[in-house]
Design brief:
The complex is a heterodimer of chains A (about 600) and B (about 600).
Chain A (H helix, E strand, L loop, with lengths): L1 H15 L19 E9 L10 E6 L6 E4 L5 E7 L2 E8 L6 E2 L12 E3 L4 E3 L2 E3 L3 E9 L9 E10 L4 E5 L5 E3 L5 E7 L2 E8 L8 E3 L2 H14 L23 E5 L2 E2 L12 E3 L4 E2 L4 E3 L1 E3 L1 E7 L5 E9 L10 E4 L5 E7 L2 E11 L13 E9 L4 E6 L5 E10 L15 E2 L15 E3 L2 E7 L2 E4 L15 E7 L2 E2 L5 E3 L3 E9 L4 E5 L12 E6 L12 E5 L5 E5 L4 E8 L10 H8 L3 E5 L4 E3 L7
Parallel strand pairs in A: 1-8, 1-9, 10-20, 10-21, 23-29, 30-38, 39-45
Antiparallel strand pairs in A: 1-4, 2-3, 2-5, 5-6, 5-7, 10-14, 11-12, 11-13, 11-15, 15-18, 15-19, 16-17, 17-22, 23-26, 24-25, 24-27, 27-28, 30-33, 31-34, 32-33, 34-37, 35-36, 35-38, 39-42, 40-41, 40-43, 43-44
Chain B lengths: L1 H23 L5 E9 L10 E5 L12 E2 L5 E7 L2 E8 L6 E2 L12 E3 L4 E9 L3 E8 L10 E10 L2 E11 L5 E7 L2 E7 L5 E3 L11 H8 L10 E4 L2 E4 L16 E2 L3 E2 L12 E3 L4 E2 L4 E2 L3 E12 L2 E2 L4 E6 L12 E4 L5 E8 L1 E7 L1 E2 L4 E2 L6 E2 L1 E6 L4 E7 L1 E2 L3 E8 L12 E6 L2 H7 L3 E4 L5 E3 L6 E7 L7 E7 L2 E2 L5 E3 L3 E9 L4 E8 L2 E2 L3 E7 L16 E3 L6 E5 L3 E9 L9 H8 L3 E5 L4 E3 L2 E2 L5
Parallel strand pairs in B: 1-8, 9-20, 9-21, 22-32, 34-42, 43-50, 43-51
Antiparallel strand pairs in B: 1-4, 2-3, 2-5, 5-6, 5-7, 9-12, 10-11, 10-13, 13-18, 13-19, 14-16, 15-16, 17-22, 22-23, 22-26, 24-25, 24-27, 27-31, 28-29, 30-33, 34-37, 35-36, 35-38, 38-41, 39-40, 39-42, 43-44, 43-47, 45-46, 45-48, 48-49
Chain lengths: ~600, ~600
């Protein structure tokens, strides 16, 4: 709070120093008549110092490509000859955090500038200086660990998958030098998990000899002495049995700060703008690997393929490994580093290729296993057939019935992160007033786009209800655990409609940003929930949301979000603080004009 | 060459005959116990991964990789007799290997007899060295994310040349640190590659298309806001280690030319940094200053019309001593054959058609054309340059045998190598081009870019020795030929009158298999211009009993044995000069085999 007040003073001063005639402009042909200009200055957000050699880009639908200019020694820039239209502007400089014009935070979309014919717009950008995380990675013997990648992971809502996911920002990666020192810079302020990630971790293990084995080998050599030159009678060969027994198979695995191989036990590193965080150090040690083995029941006439995948949500390495069960059903995975894993088994008829669509999979099984340096044996994996879900389609209304009613986009099942190629939910088949979906693997599913009929009607029809085994599936994340043939999908030809405009404090219409409407109760805050909606403001400042079920809602205005980010419970928690409350009745048309949330 | 092949096959035969019965009796009881030590102080090294390749164990299992403890020890048991290569890896160290006696020296396999217990497999490792410094611009502002490249002095084709060996980006303080360097002589410089694309092709970048693929090959992988500066009809890619240039001034761009520590525009005037194992050189600072540029543009026309979507490079003409060709300014021709280099500092350049490194052949899809055009750039733009791309040239000829006793062998077993004579030709044509002779004894290459080439052979037919290759009566084995048009009268001759030299190498303790035998002509003129695999400048490693043998064409030679540690510079004329003073001088006549025993001595 205090910081922003301090920063505000120099900003007013800067506003007086208008960009002058000598400012750098892009190398475009002379300004055509009636064309406009966007100009400004790039400063350090904290010190308000002009930033030279920053790259400023403008893009907009009127431009075939984005244009870039470089700021002068006084931080100024200008784009001339811009056609009338809507533009966004961003600035970047190495060591600083890239910002979009008008955005309060990094990565966020900024404000869209509307350039009138012959108009001129002042667009100043303030870049926060990047934060630094630095430290040393040592091996257990205290020597520098050279060439180790150190990554900073930050979690962000993935609007496509509907979950918070960890990813490495562009500047969030560094490699240790010959002293074991790494330094990542240009980071936006925030919370990071930091991990030292060996390059080929878990790839193949190495063995550590026991002291006894070394002593015994040295003794064998001494005993041989000069008398056992080749061709001469050698003493009986030393036995290998028992010697190799004591060896430990080890590998390197990622280590999270301050020293754990599991991301959930990591201590987040919080950095403020421009902060240099020293001492984020790591000790890298070889850890024992394990053998994971068990039995799977093999259905008659089938073969079983198994895979094991690390399910750490942050560093899901080192990749999925595949194995086949023996004729007796035994499976083995060797050299598995410590971590949490998911083992999946699929049975295929002999005439179906591996990796076939779920409908062709006859049997299926999954289990999770924690590996902690000891061998894991005796896993029993039972296979079960996939589910079939079917039932009636009920139409409440008089419109013509649409045949392709349920061809919803294939959703992504909610398997843990890190499992590549999750198998999607098959499409429904509708025959008259009955629907059926077969070949469904039990589990949680998430829709990658709104289920049809929820936010947009299918012809005249709105999706009203989907009841399977007595549960309303539209009011909770979709979870399919058992087969049924008594499902009921209800479609209606009426829907609620919430609409209105957003006015700024000065009474002008806002044409940029989103209105987010969401259920009061947090239990409805899940991905693609029918009780959560985001509506982009039109160029006339209007918004409209249809088919919200009756209930209590909150409404907020924001331009600091990405598409689908309104399904993120973390964001809804923040928006709830500045939201307006609203009661909506079944199929009710409702008008609600709003002002921007503060 | 032929003699050694014979000796080898004889040895193999003997080994096989002796080996057959004993193979069955192999007791699988061989044992190797060794230790990894720091070459500088002899201390054991912990945390080294030791791996071994050689005859596999029972059941075909490979050998485990061993992680050393604080005693640096490793053990391999249950071994068959045979030759084992042992390697040791630890980040921060140069890879160690059995028999390696200098940081980048050769490895020697460990020979294990049946049931032998070898207890002294010592593997030495050398620490990497590093160079660090700070990079600032003309205003003293520290430059962030700028690439600094280290170049190590090597001798290629008898020429000293600095080749890129490591690089690093500056951090937020403008500091860079290049680690992982092997001992040697270095220069460092900020030498950022400038990549441009025709704006008309920008839409194709990053998508799956010929234009996109071609652009990706020159490093213009993706255009995002802020990643490209529009200069006339070209896009100059920003970032990727290049300093951000100053803003346009009167429509002109200034860029940062290559700068070497301490403040040199070329590699020749840079300060040479000698680095020992584990050395840490601090303060290799750089200050970069922008220079005004002009634009160079035009069209490329080949025999079949416009040469389109083809990478072009503009290489500074003084880059023979420093291998900057990979960091040269590059662009593509567009769909009409037009190209623009939008920001070129004044100087002398060569415009070249860039070899397609990905496919390992030159860059045109259907016809081979090449360009090697000198371009002088001054203070004014060069517009509408029309560059004619030449069609590829063929080199060919016939094989001849000069036999006294035996009949000529089938010529189809002969492969002729056309070897580029200088780094420039190699940059366009690759390290060597093979042409196999037909049954009539004729050979002809695929089309090549014009340039300077040697003609050599890959292998001689059994019982024959490579004697000469000539074009128009001139030697082309040891003296390169300049080829600008088809050259189809090369004569490659083999003889059955072998000539060469053999002998035993000894030191004060007896036979010295660890030495290196160096043989080179007495004429210093030939030392520096003999190509990458010269026929008359040879380095030979003696056998286990110190014996050496080599085929050589007739001539006057120096011959001497040096410790292996000194053999790394054997193609350096300065080293040969010093070596010549300690060498024996011998004359080999045609068909003559000389004997010369040697005593290992160090060159100072």
């Amino acid at each position: 709070m205090r910081r922003s007040r301090l920063a505000a003073v120099p900003l007013t001063l800067l506003a007086i120093v208008a960009p002058h005639a000598q400012q750098p402009r892009d190398n475009q042909s002379p300004t055509a008549a009636g064309q406009g200009r966007i100009a400004g200055i790039v400063t350090d957000a904290r010190e308000s110092r002009a930033l030279r050699r920053a790259r400023v880009s403008v893009s907009g639908s009127e431009l075939t490509r984005s244009r870039t200019v470089i700021t002068a020694d006084d931080g100024t820039f200008a784009f001339d000859g811009l056609p009338t239209g809507r533009y966004s502007v961003s600035a970047t400089k190495d060591g600083y955090v890239t910002m979009n014009y008008g955005a309060a935070r990094p990565v966020r979309p900024g404000r869209v500038l509307t350039l009138a014919p012959g108009g001129s717009i002042r667009a100043d950008l303030r870049l926060p200086i990047g934060s630094v995380i630095t430290g040393t990675v040592l091996t257990l013997d205290g020597e520098p660990a050279v060439g180790i990648a150190v990554n900073a992971y930050t979690s962000q809502y993935d609007g496509g998958r509907g979950e918070r996911r960890f990813s490495i920002p562009p500047t969030g990666s560094a490699t240790t030098d010959d002293r074991g020192i790494y330094r990542m810079f240009g980071l936006a302020e925030g919370t990071y998990l930091v991990a030292a990630v060996p390059r080929f971790f878990g790839n193949a293990d190495v063995q550590i000899l026991t002291q006894a084995e070394i002593r015994s080998a040295l003794a064998d050599v001494r005993q041989a002495g000069v008398s056992t030159r080749p061709g001469m009678a050698a003493p009986p060969p030393p036995s290998n049995a028992g010697v190799v027994e004591g060896r430990r198979a080890v590998t390197l695995t990622p280590v999270f700060y301050p020293g754990t191989s599991l991301s959930e036990r990591a201590t987040p590193v919080v950095v403020r703008t421009g902060e240099v965080r020293n001492g984020v150090n790591f000790d890298l040690d070889y850890v024992p690997t394990s053998t994971v083995e068990g039995m799977v029941t093999i259905p008659q006439g089938m073969r079983v393929q198994l895979s094991i995948a690390n399910t750490d949500p942050v560093v899901p390495g080192p990749g999925t490994r595949i194995s086949s069960a023996s004729d007796e059903g035994r499976f083995v995975f060797r050299s598995i580093p410590p971590g949490t894993y998911s083992i999946r088994a699929r049975a295929y008829p002999f005439n179906v290729r591996a990796g076939a669509q779920p409908a062709e999979i006859s049997m299926w099984g999954e289990t999770s296993v924690v590996v902690a340096g000891e061998d894991v044996t005796g896993i029993a994996l039972a296979l079960q057939p996939p589910l079939t879900i079917s039932g009636r389609v009920v139409f409440e209304g008089t419109g013509p019935r649409v045949p392709d009613l349920l061809s919803m986009r294939v959703p992504i099942p909610a398997f843990p992160a890190g499992i590549s190629n999750p198998i999607g939910l098959p499409s429904a088949v509708v025959d008259g007033s009955r629907f059926s979906i077969s070949g469904v693997l039990p589990g949680q599913y998430r829709f990658t786009s709104p289920p049809r009929g929820i936010r947009a009607a299918i012809g005249p029809w709105w999706m009203k209800s989907m009841i399977l085994n007595g549960r309303e599936m539209l009011d909770a994340p979709l979870e399919l655990r058992e087969s049924t043939d008594e499902g009921v999908i209800t479609l209606g030809d009426k829907a609620s409609e919430l609409s209105g405009v957003v006015r700024a404090a000065d009474g002008s219409l806002m044409t940029d940003g989103f209105v987010v409407v969401f259920a009061l109760e947090p239990r409805f805050w899940f991905h693609q929930s029918r009780r959560v909606a985001g509506a982009r403001l039109s160029s006339q400042g209007k918004y409209v949301v249809r088919n919200l079920p009756a209930g209590e809602y909150l409404v907020a205005v924001t331009n600091e979000i990405d598409l689908n980010e309104w399904f993120d419970p973390e964001l809804l928690k923040v928006l709830a603080r500045s939201a307006v409350r609203l009661s909506l009745r079944e199929n009710e048309p409702r008008t609600l004009d709003l002002s921007p949330s503060r | 060459m032929i003699i050694s092949q014979h000796v080898l096959s004889l040895a193999l035969l003997v080994a096989l005959q002796i080996g057959m019965p004993s193979h069955q009796a192999d007791s699988l009881s061989g044992l190797i116990v060794g230790q990894v030590v720091d070459a500088e102080n002899g201390r054991p090294i912990m945390g080294v991964v030791v791996s071994m390749s050689g005859p596999v164990g029972p059941g075909g299992a490979g050998h485990p990789r061993i992680l050393t403890g604080d005693d640096g020890r490793f053990v391999f048991r249950g071994l068959r007799r045979g030759n084992y290569s042992i390697f040791a890896a630890k980040p921060g160290y140069i890879e160690g290997a059995h028999g390696r006696t200098r940081p980048a020296g050769p490895s020697v396999p460990l020979q294990l007899a049946d049931g032998e217990r070898n207890g002294d497999a010592i593997i030495r490792m050398w620490k990497h060295a590093s160079i660090s410094g700070t990079v600032v611009d003309e205003a003293g502002e520290r430059l962030v994310a700028v690439r600094v490249q280290a170049y190590r002095r090597t001798v290629i084709s008898g020429r000293r040349r600095y080749v890129p060996t490591g690089s690093a980006l500056t951090d937020d303080r403008g500091i860079y640190r290049i680690g992982g360097l092997v001992p040697g002589d270095y220069i460092v410089g900020a030498v950022a590659r400038q990549t441009n694309i025709p704006l008309s092709m920008e839409g194709g970048i990053g998508v799956s298309s010929t234009a996109g693929e071609t652009a990706t090959r020159i490093g213009a992988s993706r255009v995002t806001p802020g990643s490209m500066l529009q200069v006339r009809d070209a896009g100059l890619m920003l970032g990727a280690g290049a300093p951000i240039p100053p803003p346009f001034e009167n429509g002109r761009l200034a860029t940062y030319p290559p700068t070497f520590h301490p403040n040199a525009p070329t590699g020749d005037s840079a300060t040479v940094i000698p680095l020992g194992a584990g050395a840490e050189y601090l303060g290799a600072d750089l200050q970069l200053k922008p220079v005004r540029t002009v634009s160079v543009s035009g069209y490329v026309v080949g025999p079949a019309g416009a040469v389109t979507m083809t990478p072009l490079r503009l290489i500074a003409a003084d880059t023979i001593d420093v291998a900057l060709d990979n960091d040269a300014t590059s662009t593509l021709t567009d769909r009409s054959g037009r190209f623009t280099f939008p920001a070129v500092p004044s100087g002398h350049y060569n415009l070249r058609l860039q070899r397609d490194s990905r496919r390992g052949e030159w860059s045109l899809s259907d016809t081979v054309v090449w360009i090697d055009l000198p371009v002088s750039v001054g203070g004014e733009d060069i517009d509408n340059l029309v560059v004619e791309a030449q069609p590829g040239v063929h080199i060919g000829g016939r094989i001849e045998f000069e036999g006294t006793a035996q009949s000529a062998p089938p010529t189809s077993s002969v492969s002729v190598i056309i070897e580029p004579a200088d780094p420039v030709s190699a940059g366009m044509a690759g390290p060597g081009i093979f042409a196999r002779a037909n049954t009539a004894g004729e050979f002809q290459t695929q089309p090549l870019p014009g340039g300077r080439y040697y003609v050599r052979v890959q292998n001689s037919p059994s019982g024959w020795m490579f004697k000469s290759a000539t074009a128009d009566g001139h030697d082309v084995v040891d003296t390169p030929m300049t080829v600008a048009a088809d050259l189809l009268n090369v004569v490659v001759t083999f003889t059955d009158r072998w000539s060469g030299i053999r002998g035993i190498v000894q030191n004060q303790h007896g036979p010295d298999p660890s030495a290196a035998v160096l043989i080179f002509p007495t004429d210093p003129e030939t030392w520096g211009s003999a190509g990458a695999s010269p026929r008359r400048v040879r380095l030979i490693r003696p056998g286990k009993t110190g014996d050496y043998s080599v085929n050589l064409p007739g001539g006057e030679y120096y011959v001497l044995a040096v410790p292996d540690g000194q053999s790394g510079e054997w193609q350096d004329p300065a080293f040969l000069d010093a070596a010549s003073r300690a060498a024996a001088r011998i004359t080999i006549r045609e068909g003559e085999r000389k004997s010369q025993d040697l005593r290992t001595r160090e060159i100072r």
